[in-house]
Write a structure and sequence with these properties.
Elements lengths: L5 E6 L6 H12 L2 E4 H9 L4 H11 L6 H16 L7 E5 L5 H13 L6 E7 L2 H9 L1 E3 L6 E3 L24 H14 L1 H9 L3 E5 L4 H17 L1
Helix pairs in contact: 1-9, 2-3, 4-5, 6-7
This protein binds zinc ion.
């Protein structure tokens, strides 16, 4: 029997290494990607009322409300469905945020018959660890590589492409605290919701990239063995 598509929902605060894991998992498992941030940036280009309003909300650092996000998901899901057997599954990054989005997502997955292999993973790190990591984080504007610079190292060179690493302007302690605050306000309720249903898989995010990845793979394979 054809396996049901794998739906991976990755949750984690800023600095958890979520983005790195998304890329590793995508490559390893041949999954599609659905990032709400990317979808909204794409939607902004259309130039109609909602496009302008999305731009306005994002520029103010606000949250685009669930119905607008949900419409974009549904269109994307329909496109995935049209791929037929070629569709192996999808990684959701940065969603759901509010509790309402979690509920809408459950209904959407049920609608498309994708509710058999859903994995909800929280890459768990403390606020202290997040702040520490981000203070040491540099990124390569050329290839998007994220590097954690150790104290002994004095390198501004990207190990992937050789480009020059920079500190992102939003990666100040203040900026980080703002994002952590945002996580507490927008995401924790959703995390608790999944946890109370016994659906949340916590992954220790305070380990090396390889170990986090291995722990995630173990959880995914568990599902495939039963
Ligand atoms: Zn690079």
């Amino acid at each position: 029997m054809e396996k049901s598509p794998l739906i991976l929902i990755l949750l984690g605060k800023s600095g958890s290494g979520k983005g790195t894991q998304v890329n590793l998992l995508k490559d390893k498992l041949g999954l599609d990607f659905l990032g709400t941030g990317a979808l909204l940036r794409e939607r902004k280009k259309i130039g109609d009322f909602s496009a302008n309003k999305i731009a306005e909300v994002i520029d103010k650092g606000g949250i685009v409300p669930p119905p607008v996000v949900f419409k974009l998901w549904m269109d994307k899901f329909e496109a995935f469905k049209n791929k037929g057997d070629e569709f192996k599954g999808v990684i959701l990054d940065g969603s759901p945020r509010k509790l309402l989005e979690a509920k809408l997502l459950d209904d959407s997955l049920g609608w498309f018959n994708w509710d058999k292999r859903v994995k909800i993973l929280l890459i768990d790190i403390s606020d202290e660890e997040a702040i520490n990591r981000i203070a040491k984080r540099k990124i390569c504007p050329k290839c998007g590589n994220i590097a954690i610079i150790s104290d002994s190292e004095d390198s501004n060179k990207c190990s992937v492409c050789g480009g020059e690493l920079i500190i992102r302007p939003e990666d100040t302690v203040e900026g980080t605290q703002k994002r952590l605050e945002w996580f507490r306000e927008e995401v924790v309720e959703t995390v608790n919701h999944y946890e109370s249903m016994g659906r949340l898989i916590k992954i220790n995010g305070e380990q090396s990239v390889e170990n986090v990845f291995n722990d995630i793979m173990k959880e995914i394979e568990k599902d495939d063995n039963n």
